[in-house]
Every structure is written in C-alpha cells, then in structure tokens.
Specification:
The chain is mainly β and 208 residues long. The protein has a single domain, classed as Immunoglobulin-like. Helices cover 7% and strands 30% of the residues. The protein is built from two helices and 13 strands; from the N terminus they run E-E-E-E-E-E-E-E-E-E-E-E-H-H-E. The strands form four sheets. It has a five-stranded mixed sheet with strand order 6-12-11-8-9, covered by helices on one side. A four-stranded mixed sheet has the order 5-7-10-13, covered by helices on one side. It has a two-stranded antiparallel sheet with strand order 1-3. Strand 8 and strand 9 form a beta hairpin. It is globular, with a radius of gyration of 17 Å.
Length: 208
C-alpha cells in the first residue's frame, strides 16, 4: 500500500497529511493551515510559454491551458534530489521532440537533455538524466524548449521555472512530492491548490 508523505506546497498553503492511497475515499483529506517559508529568494519565473513568433506550433488558445510549468506561482519551488522530475503541461500541437536545459546561478547551461514528447500533448514528467553530477545545493532555472518543425528553431516555444536544491531529506518538497502523487487521487487536490484546476484530471506521462 503506497504512502504519500506530507505535502508542503508554498506560503500559507494546505498540507495533505500522510495517508494510504489505496485504502481511503477520494475526498478523505485532513487539512490544516501552516506558514511555510521556502528556502531561497524570489518567485518562479518562465511558468508560461514565451512569446512565439513562428507559426509551426500551436501553444494553446484562450479556451485551453497554455504551455505551462507546473509549479506554485507564489514561491520558489524546492527539491532535495540531485536529478529531480520536472512537470509541464503541453497543449496538443503535434510536437514529438523537445530539449530540457538547466542553468545554474552563473547562467551556465550545465545540463542539456533531449526528450521525446507525446504528440497529443498533456502533462509530462521529465526526470533529469544521470549523465552528469546533477544539482548541488543552490538555485537553478530549467527550460523545456518544444521543437515544432523538423529541426530546432529560434522561435520554438519555451517554458520553465526556477528550482532550488536543498539538503534536508526530511522535508516533503514541491518537485519531489508533485512527481510522487502523479496519477494518484491526490493529484487533483494538488492542482487545485496551485490554481491549475484545468489540469486536475490530467494523467501524467513520464518521458525520456
């Protein structure tokens, strides 16, 4: 029976207490309010698609969720993993390839990873590959660039967010818990907490 650790999202938000996924009704949540100050400074950036000049990709319309990084909007998001899983929503645009970039505080792109994407779009989870040493404690930014045509282009859409690596393995941190609750009943509750209600019923496809 799978156990889900306590979720700390951001700011004065809701905690979901530890519970058993398989044994309780869908709406069985005990809630309490806490004040949580995340490590690091600043708010997430790049959470929606950058402006697109080309017409090769459809990055979403006003009637649907646009290309979006799945992170809280009001605080910096944390992980204690060296190779965390990053989540993003991709609208249906027919793209099957993308590139994940991670840069450090000195603006160096130290991680580049090509990924395969579902042509139908949806929520994708991308785990940083083990090809490098991964994140050390500190602040980073990640970007997912969607390849719209046969080759990468300067005006391909990009989405991303900040990420802060901490060493405390006893905390339940955003990037780690959001990946853990993917495709469980807690996913819907988590999306509602960060005002991404339109994604509350989405399945997560893990890609590489």
């Amino acid at each position: 029976m799978k156990k889900i650790a306590t979720i700390i999202t951001a700011g004065s938000l809701i905690l979901l207490t530890s519970l058993s996924v398989d044994a309780r009704p869908k709406n069985y949540y005990r809630r309490m309010r806490v004040t949580f100050t995340p490590a690091g400074k600043g708010h997430p950036q790049y959470t929606s698609a950058a402006a697109v000049r080309g017409t090769q990709c459809n990055v979403g319309t006003s009637k649907e969720q646009s290309l979006t990084a799945i992170v809280p909007s009001n605080s910096q998001s944390l992980t204690n993993k060296s190779h965390p899983t990053l989540l993003a929503y991709i609208p249906e645009m027919g793209a099957t390839k993308g590139t994940l970039y991670v840069k450090n505080e000195t603006e160096d792109f130290f991680h580049v990873q090509e990924v395969n994407l579902p042509s139908k779009g949806g929520v994708v989870g991308i785990t940083m590959s083990q090809g490098d040493a991964g994140l050390k404690d500190g602040s980073y930014s990640w970007f997912l660039k969607i390849q719209c045509g046969k080759s990468a282009a300067i005006d391909d859409p990009v989405v991303g967010a900040n990420i802060h690596k901490v060493g405390d393995k006893n905390q339940a941190l955003w990037y780690d818990v959001s990946a853990e609750v993917a495709n469980t009943p807690q996913w819907s509750e988590l999306m509602n907490q960060i005002n991404l209600n339109s994604l509350s019923n989405q399945q997560v496809t893990f890609v590489n």
